[in-house]
Design brief:
With 245 residues, the chain is of the alpha+beta class. It is 26% helix and 37% strand. Strand 7, helix 5 and strand 8 form a beta-alpha-beta unit. Helix 3 packs antiparallel against helix 4, helix 3 packs across helix 6 and helix 5 packs across helix 6.
Length: 245
């Protein structure tokens, strides 16, 4: 068990004076499997009142508006989270059993539907189909698909944007975590594996000593029915989930 303190800063600089802005921020983690939130606070400048609610996917949302003239907006989220090791449990579902289970639970029905962002190109579908067809274990297939996608796309900033689709990212074979996650989601869903998008924070030094400060990576990833992958098969013992979609 360990504790992680995360300070996440973001904001906007406007070209002129803005008279009003209406915003939602998903920057604070929630307690859940393997993590307990001990403290979480969002500082907004210019100062603004805000209210918090939990959205359909279970993410913590801070909604606020600023009605005074301003030229920039600054958000600082500070969280203290207790993290426990999350062992990957063994799964013995066959493909037939998985398909039947996925039909019974509305959560998994939703996680099988492709979106504009995740819809994969034919080459990725063929790749995922080949991997899935080589094993009777859906869990092993999910991990292998995620690993293959991660190996096939070079991490490079500036090539893609927030609206880039999986198909566009695959054409470049370059992108950031979000692009790799979209491709993995599309590949998993293409072979009948329910999967969802989870974003959080990953400590870059698993063996960091108490009190050591390090730049924490924002970690978008795909969470499959039987496996979770952030591009590495190593258990994420120092990661925090913040946003689920």
């Amino acid at each position: 068990m360990s504790r992680m303190r995360v300070k996440h800063m973001t904001g906007f600089h406007y070209g002129g004076e803005v008279t009003a802005s209406y915003n939602e921020a998903r920057m604070l983690p929630t307690s859940g499997d393997g993590q307990l939130v001990l403290y979480a606070n969002l500082e907004i400048l210019p100062i603004s009142a805000h209210h918090t609610y939990t959205d359909y996917w279970g993410s913590r949302v801070s909604s606020f508006e600023i009605l005074t003239p301003h030229k920039e907006l600054s958000l600082t989220a500070t969280s203290l989270v207790e993290v426990r090791p999350r062992d990957h449990a063994e799964h013995s579902l066959t493909w037939a059993q998985l398909a039947e289970a996925a039909e019974r639970d509305i959560e998994y029905v939703e996680q099988r539907k492709q979106t504009k962002r995740t819809n994969p190109p034919a080459e990725v579908v063929a790749l995922a189909t080949q991997i899935a067809g080589a094993t009777d274990n859906p869990c092993a297939a999910a991990l292998a698909i995620c690993m293959k996608v991660g190996e096939s796309v070079e991490y490079m900033q500036g090539v893609t944007g927030v609206h880039t689709t999986a198909t566009e990212a695959w054409a470049h074979r370059k992108g950031v975590c979000q692009d790799i996650a979209h491709l993995a989601l599309g590949a998993l869903r293409a072979v009948g594996l329910p999967a969802r998008y989870v974003s959080g924070y990953l400590h870059p030094k698993p063996d960091a000593v108490v009190g050591e400060t390090a730049p924490v990576s924002r970690m978008p990833g795909s969470s499959g029915f039987a496996a979770t992958s952030g591009g590495d098969s190593t258990p994420l013992t120092r990661s925090i989930s913040a946003t689920v979609m």
